[in-house]
Design a protein that fits this description.
Two copies of one chain form a homodimer. The first copy, chain A, contains five helices and two strands, in the order ααββααα. The first copy, chain A, is mainly α. Chain A has a domain at 1-59: Multidrug-efflux Transporter Regulator, Chain: A, Domain 2 (Orthogonal Bundle), CATH 1.10.1660. Chain A has a two-stranded antiparallel sheet. The longest helix of chain A has 39 residues, at 80-118. The model of chain A has no long low-confidence stretch (mean pLDDT 93). The structure holds a DNA duplex (30 and 30 nucleotides).
Amino acid sequence: MLINELSKRTGITAHTIRFYEKSGLIKGKRDERIKSNNYFHYDDETVEKLELISDAKSIGFTLSEIGQLMEAWYNNKITIPEKVLLLEEKLRSIDEKIKHLKEMKKMIAEFKKSVEEENC
Amino acid sequence: MLINELSKRTGITAHTIRFYEKSGLIKGKRDERIKSNNYFHYDDETVEKLELISDAKSIGFTLSEIGQLMEAWYNNKITIPEKVLLLEEKLRSIDEKIKHLKEMKKMIAEFKKSVEEENC
DNA sequence: AACAACATTAGAGTATAGTCTATACTTGTA
DNA sequence: TACAAGTATAGACTATACTCTAATGTTGTT
């Protein structure tokens, strides 16, 4: 598929997709048989990758962290123990984030209660 | 206390503290009695606020969201029902974040398992 | 008095993550 | 064939959140 369809399927603008391409997060392929243009062609894996990018971004991972994660996910240049290590690191960082969020939630909930009581 | 002590107490650089001051997140007071300088003086509440900023930032709130939160926390120009609404909104957004993190964690854990099994 | 340490402001610079514009070429449809 | 729609690239622009520098003045210590 071309960039426009990829954009429609993922909800990510063509501009941003090109930005991710330039950043090395995704890779379109050029069709050697077609000489009249040099349009990038994308496969379903790229759709998956863009979805992963969206998800990972929404939980606060930077693009460079997401890049590492996708190395482990899709790339075989990295050894299995290295993959496992990387994934464990990400799991730890997610646990940290969850811990912080829970603390913050408790803090806000307590404060909300005190505000409501003040109200009476 | 002056900016240097505030910085030492919070672990936030004086540069960043001044940036927060300019952004309206904290407010130092000038001592009217002292005419020779116009140094900002900070109280313990500012220490608290800076700690809140650090915490809220670590869980992915933007400075402008943190500003709103601190309006509710410290400011009485906002009515109690408004405060409660704002706090509820932040609680919801934290729950959303936690939900996303848990989904991501599950995904990564499953992938890690499959990588490890592949290893045998 | 000398001098280090600290304070202020203005403004420049950096990193991240886009977002948009201009230019130019290609493709598909009326 | 005209022309709208799609594609590529380079580069400018934006927003957020700092981070640093320069210029200048103040305070505290020897």
